[in-house]
Design a protein that fits this description.
This protein is α+β, with helices and mostly antiparallel strands and about 300 residues long. The protein has six helices and 19 strands.
Length: about 300
């Protein structure tokens, strides 16, 4: 009898999850979801779960905070039936399917999604969810956030923005090239548990600042961009941008090459706030703040005791 009762409760739960209570369904199936596909018009972003975390479009790791925000929102939003007349319902439904974000949640490689719904920010009614042909008004658990701040069909929105992350012990060589001032370029070389600074020709400084060198190599523990633009960017789009610096890091685990470009302004000169990055190994473009690189773009003379 107890077993039959448990089975009955489980069946009822699944039925209610599938038809009436979307947040409950999302909580119920969350542990089974291994692929999330977001669609809007002709755009698609796919997030796939791997043993090390979620991957965006089979390429870059997803930002953990974005994933956490998403799951918390959809499992805790409050949905109320949207009471509209037949004509308004038909218009809203068509508009949401056309302009909203379609969410398709899959288990493994299954063709059919476990759950499928649309979400949309409407100017007049706020966040709306379309699920199983029914319209719902969504009250988000974050009062200061909107649907578009927790869900977007753009790979850059979901991407982890890390450019590089190195422990000092994993770095063999750091080379900083200044295109506009070649004489300021330098290399830091790690050998026999010691660091030495040289110019780009390999000539070692006679009186180097060891304290600054030790502090400098720690700056590479975590370097983030503001956003990862992606790889599908034509080179000619940035052909008028000027490469101003290059950072080359060689280590035991991997190498990383980062080119920094100045962003030209319409009135002449370059943006003093933002710069463009090209990450050579992943062939990704990114937008970053110059301030993030201020400590990295040192000059050779900085490492020589006066």
């Amino acid at each position: 009898m107890a077993m039959k009762k448990m089975l009955y409760i489980s069946v009822c739960l699944l039925c209610s999850c599938g038809h009436d209570d979307l947040p409950q369904a999302l909580r119920h199936y969350a542990g089974n979801i291994s692929r999330m596909v977001f669609t809007q018009a002709n755009d698609t972003v796919t997030l796939t779960e791997t043993p090390s975390g979620w991957i965006v479009n089979d390429r870059r790791e997803a930002a953990e905070n974005r994933i956490a925000d998403w799951w918390y929102t959809v499992q805790n939003w409050r949905l109320r039936p949207l009471d509209t007349d037949t004509t308004t319902t038909r218009i809203l439904t068509a508009n949401i399917k056309r302009n909203g974000v379609g969410v398709h949640l899959y288990k493994g490689s299954a063709y059919k999604p476990l759950l499928h719904f649309y979400i949309y920010d409407d100017t007049h009614t706020g966040a709306i969810v379309l699920h199983n042909g029914n319209l719902w008004s969504a009250a988000l658990p974050y009062s200061i956030k909107t649907i578009t701040e927790v869900c977007c069909v753009a790979s850059g929105f979901w991407n982890n923005v890390a450019v590089c992350a190195y422990s000092p012990s994993d770095i063999d060589t750091i080379k900083i090239l200044h295109a506009l001032r070649p004489e300021a370029s330098f290399m830091l070389i790690h050998e026999n548990n010691e660091w030495r600074v040289t110019d780009t020709h390999g000539t070692q400084a006679e009186n180097q600042n060891n304290e600054l060198i030790r502090r400098y190599v720690t700056y590479f523990r975590r370097l983030d961009a503001d956003s990862i633009i992606g790889t599908q960017v034509a080179a000619q789009d940035f052909s008028h941008y000027q490469r101003q610096h290059a950072i080359n890091i060689k280590g035991a685990k991997e190498n990383r090459t980062i080119d920094l470009f100045g962003i030209p302004l319409d009135g002449g000169g370059y943006d003093s706030d933002k710069c463009l990055l090209f990450i050579g190994e992943t062939e990704e473009w990114a937008l970053a703040s110059w301030v993030s690189f201020d400590l990295l773009l040192r000059n050779y003379s900085d490492f020589v005791n006066k």
